[in-house]
Amino acid sequence: MTNLLERMKNTVLADINNLLDKKEEKNPLALLNQYVRECEKETDKVKKLVERQYKLKEEFSKELRQAEEMAEKRRRQAEVARKAGEEELSSFAQLEQTHYEERVVRLKESLRNTEQQLHEIEKKYMDMKHKLKDMKIRQMELMAKENITKAHHTMNKVLEEKQASPTNQARFTEMEEYIEELEKKINTEYYKQTMDEKLAALEKDMLKKEDDTISL
């Protein structure tokens, strides 16, 4: 029973994948959009890893500085204790110095490995950013082609309908005539308005001159 259900599931998944493959063949832009989304997600993941690696590098550097300072501090203290005849204190300081020096060696190696790893993932991150940018440019190119193809298809369809159908031809002719009439009406109204403004300005100017003459 389990094997039968598994085979049924695999068959359904295969049918779905086959359907998606056919859809993607018909619509390459949809496939590219999917690739871009996946690439963006992966690029964001690598970006977070890069940021985390930088923080780890800073932490290792900080720990290294502290270990070096403590190793030097214990060295000085061991020397002071030895000169003062405090052998127990001097031995303790020397033991601490040894621990810190060993830690310095370990931290230097860890820091070196971290920097190398950081360089590697930074390179991968930059490569992925370039790939993502190239894919987005390709996406825009396909969108532009798709858009102009749809525009030509729509225009050709309209023009073909206009030529093929007498009804459509009459409708287009009627629309063209209406637009011409509307344009004439707008021009006439504009001319009237302009003339009214000119006449009003002329009348105002003449009245002003008459007033000036009376005043004299």
Structural account:
It is a single chain. By secondary structure, this protein is mostly helical. It is built from 4 helices and no strands. The protein has helices at 2-26, 28-83, 87-164, 166-215. α2 (28-83) packs antiparallel against α3 and α3 (87-164) packs across α4. The model has no long low-confidence stretch (mean pLDDT 78).
Give the secondary structure arrangement, pairings included.
Elements: H1 2-26, H2 28-83, H3 87-164, H4 166-215
Helix pairs in contact: 1-2, 2-3, 3-4
Q: What keyword list fits this structure?
A:
single chain; 216 residues; mainly alpha; 4 helices
Number of helices: 4
The rounded Rg comes to 42 Å
| Largest beta-sheet details | none
State the distance separating the first and last CA atoms. Answer: 119 Å
Overall shape: it is elongated
Structural class: mainly alpha
Helix content: over 70%
Note poorly predicted spans: none
| Element-by-element helix/strand order | HHHH
Percent strand equals: under 5%
Q: Averaging pLDDT over every residue, what do you get? A: 78
Count of distinct strands = 0
